[in-house]
Amino acid sequence: MNVKLPDGSVREYEGKMTAFDVVRDISEGLSRMACAVKINGEVKDLTTELVGDIDEFVVLKFEDEGGKKTYRHTASHVMAQAVKRIWPEAKVAIGPAIENGFYYDFDVEKPFTPEDLEKIEAEMQIIIDEKLPIDRFELPRQEAIKLMEEKGEPYKVELINDLPEDSVISFYKQGDFTDLCAGPHLPSTGRVRSYKILSAAGAYWRGSEKNKMLQRIYATAFDSKKDLKAYLNMMEEAKKRDHRKLGKELELFALMDEGPGFPFFLPKGMIIKNELVNYWRDVHRKAGYVEISTPIILSRQLWETSGHWLHYRENMYTTVIDEDDFAIKPMNCPGGMLVYKTKPHSYKEFPIRVGELGLVHRHEMSGALHGLMRVRSFTQDDAHIFMLPEQIKDEIKNVIKLIDEVYKVFGFSYHMELSTRPEKSIGKDEDWELSTQALKDALDEEGLEYVINEGDGAFYGPKIDFHLEDCIGRTWQCGTIQLDFQMSERFELEYIGADGQKHRPVMIHRVAFGSIERFIGILIEHYAGTFPVWLSPVQAKILTITDRNNDYANEVISFLESRGIRCEIDTRNEKIGFKIREARNERVPFITVIGDKETEDNTLSVRMRGKKEDEIMSPEELANKICDDVKNKK
RNA sequence: GCCGCUAUAGCUCAGUAGGUAGAGCGCAUCCAUGGUAAGGAUGAGGUCAUCGGUUCGAAUCCGAUUAGCGGCUCCA
Fold it and tell me: CB of A387 within 8 A of CB of A350?
């Protein structure tokens, strides 16, 4: 048989050969690194017996996505085996590889304790040291079910029953442990070189809160101890930039028992929030938006019209005023619709872009709250755009560009997702087709990459979501662009077309920051608290050496403030080293020392972030430098 | 909301075996006026989250509540 390698060369073999034999034939070194192979487009076990000519034979190492998955999936089986050895009555559920590691779900009498996890980790090493060969075998459905029933694994039986009729049912056996699994796997448990159990947590069987809660163990595995250590170090470092920790240290915001999920902004955090809002207004004014503000509390009747009273009630805070029901707005759209209706509109006005920095309240479940990332009251940088159907595509492009422009200012990388019509949805087929196509065309014509989430759209229209990453790699949805046919229908929005007739406008609903609170949370982590000058709560801090320098220092402060610079002065009776240490911990971008020398020469000794040497400059020069940085959003 | 863990001074955390609490930082006062990441001394500050139980006695053991943390679910 002929095997074609990625470099184009072809190797000839005779007789029984496994993929691993070929790998070993290519190089001994490679065989030690190999995790799996890709044969004619399919990722397979190294133990796979080769049949016939192979046009594509790619060896997958840990660095390769398929290799990493295989490696960690095997590690998850080793973990499951360890758990079964210690608690034979434990029922195994599923154990896939995930982004940075893997997990396995178990149904056990008692949740795992930290000591249990240590025991499991130790047992895993024993299994690895046993170097158990991992063998694949297939069974017909009935026998597969019988095997799992014998082993007392009801979850596996359920999984088998749910497999499509024609699917191959495969198992992997390693020593005393056999698991239903599609594979592929490493050839031996001895091939797992380093791993670490990270945490245990409850998780619903099949992800539904209606099902039993199982115990999930999260862990990770790498092909070398060095890489594992590097990963664990990285996670430690990431924790240091957690926005909740930095938010407290830098006095940006606070969360209190008195308002769970309702964040308090402290003076320094408020500066960041206001700067973001100023920037937002500037960008939107230039992009042709007008701004409105609608009430936070509106009548029940309005929410019935919008459908929220029926569909979103459990997330809404309600109140009673003069015996009538009112609700605190969870979204801004209904208010925006009322504003649209304050006067008749002509097609000539379109597109009408109406922005609103709306404070919304949503009752999120207590367990879902997370710092500023997931709160119960937040400010959406909302806007509703009313337009003609033929304007959809261009307008979507405009919004995509605007959001991209905004994210670029902060140096964010992000990914986009397009969500299409869900099963439960309302509206005409043609509207869905038209709008989904418009979203797709806009993305494609701009040459943008995106993933499609089939059926994940809102019930009233398809959407494009923008996702940003936090410091430990979790992604948070921020920007979103949603087509909405529901609202204009429900609120009977109208415009007079060129034909003199009344029509329904098309509406999009979009946010760029998403939630200013969440965006700030991500910014804190993104910059690790070291904000660019324009966002820095304190841009310059003046430190005096002795109180002989106070008068000059105050003069300098007044001058800088007259130029709109946010500054602080530290005339405390402390040593300069101590004052510098504090100013640096506060991440002040321009730390200015004034001693006798500077007082005499009317100069400043300025330490700029990231530079080791101080720079001597005049107050004028410092002010210009800071103003330039602010202007350039540096 | 669900599973698990946690709650001690403004902050970060000790508190071994039930016998009414400690450190560092911060704060206040005093000394030192000191040139680029912590000068020294003294002092104030705690119903040990809340409520209830066990006990002669609870920060410590048990239960409930509240909030936080890690996940699940949900979402900007």
Answer: yes
Residue A74 has pLDDT above 80, yes or no: yes
Q: Which amino acid is at A102?
A: F
DSSP E strands in A559-632: the ranges are 567-570, 590-594, 604-608, 615-617
> Which amino acid is present at A137?
F
Nucleotide nearest to A571 (CA to C1'): B33
Tens of pLDDT, residues A524-556: 999 999 999 999 999 999 999 999 999 999 999
Task: Please report, rounded to whole angstroms, the spatial distance between the CA atom of protein residue A575 and the C1' atom of nucleotide B40.
Answer: 12
pLDDT in tens, A357-413: 999 999 999 889 999 999 999 999 999 999 998 999 999 999 999 999 999 999 988
- Is it the case that residue A473 has pLDDT exceeding 80? no
Neighbours of A161 (CB within 10 A): 10
**Any idea which nucleotide's C1' is nearest the CA of A213?**
B3
CA A212 to C1' B45, whole Å: 49
Contact A508, A384 (CB under 8 A): yes
A155 and A203 in contact (C-beta within 8 Å)? Answer: no
Q: Which residues have C-beta within 8 Å of that of residue A338, sequence separation ≥ 6?
A: A294, A302, A491
Q: Which pTM value belongs to this model? A: 0.90
Block residue for tokens 């619903």? A204
Q: What is the pLDDT confidence band of residue A416, given thresholds at 50, 70 and 90? A: very high
What pLDDT does A310 receive?
Answer: 86
Question: What value of ipTM does the predicted structure carry?
Answer: 0.92
A455 falls in which pLDDT band (50, 70, 90)? confident
Does residue A364 reach within 7 angstroms of strand B, measured from its CB? Answer: yes
The radius of gyration of chain A from alpha carbons, rounded to an integer in Å, stands at 31
Which 8-state DSSP code applies to residue A165? T
> CA(A590)–C1'(B35) in Å?
17
Under 8 Å between Cβ of A407 and A440: no
Closest CA to A90 of A116, A72, A110: A110
- Please say whether the beta carbons of A66 and A165 come within 8 A: no
**Residues A557-564: contacts with CB under 8 Å, at least 24 apart:** A559/A619, A559/A623, A560/A619, A560/A622, A560/A623, A560/A626, A563/A623, A563/A626, A563/A627, A564/A627
Q: Is the CB of A546 under 7 A from strand B?
A: yes
Residue A453, beta-bridge partner list: A419
Q: Which nucleotide has its C1' atom closest to residue A248's CA?
A: B11
Q: Which of A363, A388, A385, A357 is closest to A376 using CA atoms?
A: A363
Show which residues of A are catalytic. 333, 362, 380, 382, 384, 463, 509
A456 touches strand B (CB under 7 A): no
The SS3 assignment for A178 reads strand
DSSP 8-state symbol, A366 = G
- Measure CA to C1' and name the residue nearest B66: A257
Closest CA to A522 of A314, A263, A241: A241
